[in-house]
Design brief:
With 550 residues, this protein is mainly α. It is built from 21 helices and no strands.
Length: 550
């Protein structure tokens, strides 16, 4: 029996050895439509990042543990990542524009609830609700770009969508930092309200109502399982380093594992699966998905830990901390046109590897140069390199997903593209945050143990809980304030070194995956042509089933 890969290669030799260039098209009022879609995405991207720079202030306001701060930071990504597959499928079936408008509208009360939250638990819930709102709107933006544009025009539209989205996300800390110079932490959650109203109007006015949507029934059971598996996985990672929460973390891990198994079984048996596993097994699709999870997750994790480092260790003001990340935003926006050009001329693999190289350099700068005496150019260089890396890698990661699925499955592709960012962000942020928490607690405990002063159990618990808690103890004991602050800074640096080292390992693994499994430009073109031919055929021959295109 011949292997499926051989049959596909034969088919490519016969039908796609020299495929014609993909036709390029765009919708009427293309600039206004794209502006509306980018504005909707901007609401989600800005909301995603505004909390990071306010974390130290939030920690002080609620006397929050490092785990509590991790959950506030990851809550938005968690809500978005957990819901995006299900809501993307609902948009495909029941109307993408309606889902776009509903999600943009829901972002308004979610932001208000976050701003008026009376406790860290309510704040986490508000961030989770905001993520669910983004799960309704954000995947729809890329799905509509996929449905309305084609060929090189689609690649350019995705490049602009990706670069501006990433740039706006990176600008979130700057906007938040400026607000925090004159207002309390609550203000950062109100900043997106005017943008949400504007985005709602633009989407209502210019986005087409129905474009290439599917008539398949939505797999609601599969949707529920997808929510459970992502939510349980992310929460398990966050609770893993918390003292006394090992049983809860293990239980959540088992729930996540069970939900993953049940989800896969359900998708294999469902008449109209929520997530087409046959399409997902296409090499271009699954490698791009994995690569994107790591690169986008690296950006979000670097922003999450970096903002705390700048304020806790270097003593930056909130505005200075926000300004520090500006090189990352500039880098993303500037390289986007070059990224689209590289994808068309050199292929997605080459462009992804260029992006990974810059991300690796950025994390090396953070690990080696971001210490207690780092100068600003060290900080700016780290963010610039990561921003350039994400700018290069973002376009091929998203474009490869949308190009390798039939247009009626655009919601699945765009949901996966969002998972790259949001599941990647949630997982990478959770892992690096957990390592930061564990490293901080380990170093703080060691410092307490070797201290010449007697430290009560209650004070020790506060010192090891988080940097903000240690700062509060320092204020209560001015005689020892400097030594407590120095110990807390050292403990934080110990923890973030663990986190950056883990980020480097993840980036290297992602680069290895792309280098060994993603096809070169010529084979990529042939595979995409074969995928397109299969998707047009009413009953594709068994030798060309998507499951075998590996």
């Amino acid at each position: 029996m011949r292997r499926g890969g051989d049959a596909v290669e034969d088919a490519m030799d016969a039908t796609a050895t020299a495929p014609a260039p993909a036709p390029s098209s765009s919708p009427p009022q293309a600039k206004l439509v794209l502006t509306a879609l980018i504005a909707v995405a901007a609401v989600a991207n800005l909301n995603l990042a505004v909390a990071n720079v306010a974390l130290p202030d939030i920690g002080k306001a609620f006397d929050a543990s490092q785990t509590g701060l991790d959950l506030v930071a990851v809550g938005y990504s968690l809500g978005l990542a957990a819901s995006v597959l299900y809501l993307g499928a609902l948009g495909d079936a029941h109307g993408r524009k309606a889902m776009l408008l509903a999600g943009t509208a829901l972002a308004i009360p979610a932001s208000l609830l976050a701003g008026f939250a009376p406790s860290i638990g309510i704040l986490f819930g508000a961030r989770l609700l905001g993520g669910l709102a983004a799960g309704m709107a954000f995947p729809t933006t890329l799905a509509l770009i996929t449905a309305l544009w084609s060929g090189p025009e689609r690649t350019r539209a995705i490049a602009l969508w990706s670069a501006l989205g990433g740039g706006i996300s990176a600008l979130g800390p700057l906007v938040s930092g400026a607000l925090l110079t004159g207002f309390e932490w609550e203000s950062v959650f109100f900043v997106t309200l005017p943008l949400a109203f504007l985005a709602f109007y633009l989407a209502w006015r210019f986005v087409p109502a129905h474009v290439n949507e599917t008539s398949d029934r939505v797999d609601n059971l599969g949707g529920i399982l997808s929510v459970v598996m992502v939510a349980a996985l992310v929460l398990a990672i966050n609770f893993a380093p918390v003292p006394g929460a090992k049983a809860a973390a293990a239980g959540l891990g088992l729930v996540a594992l069970g939900a993953i198994v049940a989800f896969v079984v359900r998708q294999r048996r469902a008449a109209s699966p929520l997530y087409d596993l046959e399409v997902a097994r296409r090499r271009i699709f699954w490698v791009a998905a994995g690569a994107g999870i790591i690169v986008f997750g690296s950006l979000m994790a670097a922003m999450f830990i970096g903002q705390q480092y700048l304020q806790n260790v270097l003593g930056y003001s909130t505005l200075d901390a926000g300004l520090a990340i500006l090189p990352g935003a500039v880098g993303m926006v500037l390289v986007a046109p070059r990224s689209a050009h590289l994808v068309e001329t050199r292929g997605a693999r080459f462009t992804l590897l260029v992006g990974y190289t810059f991300c690796l350099l950025g994390f090396l700068v953070m690990l080696l140069l971001w210490d207690e005496h780092a100068q600003y150019w060290h900080v700016g260089l780290g963010y610039l390199l990561v921003g350039i890396g994400v700018g290069f890698a973002g376009t091929p990661a998203s474009r490869s997903l949308t190009a390798s699925v039939p247009v009626h499955r655009a919601g699945m592709a765009s949901a996966t593209a969002d998972l790259q960012r949001d599941l990647g962000g949630a997982i990478m942020q959770s892992i690096l945050g957990a390592l930061l928490t564990a490293g901080y607690a380990t170093a703080a405990s060691a410092a307490v143990a070797t201290s010449p002063h007697n430290v009560s159990t209650s004070v020790e618990n506060e010192l090891t809980k988080s940097f903000s808690s240690a700062a509060a103890v320092a204020e209560q004991h001015p005689r020892y304030a400097e030594s407590i602050a120095a110990g807390a800074r050292g403990a934080f640096l110990h923890g973030d070194a663990w986190a950056y080292a883990a980020g480097i390992v993840a980036i290297l693994l992602g680069a290895l995956l792309v280098a060994t499994r993603f096809p070169g430009k010529e084979q990529e073109t042939q595979l995409l042509a074969a995928y397109a031919k299969e998707d047009q055929a009413p009953n594709p021959p068994s030798s060309l089933k998507p499951a075998r295109i590996l």
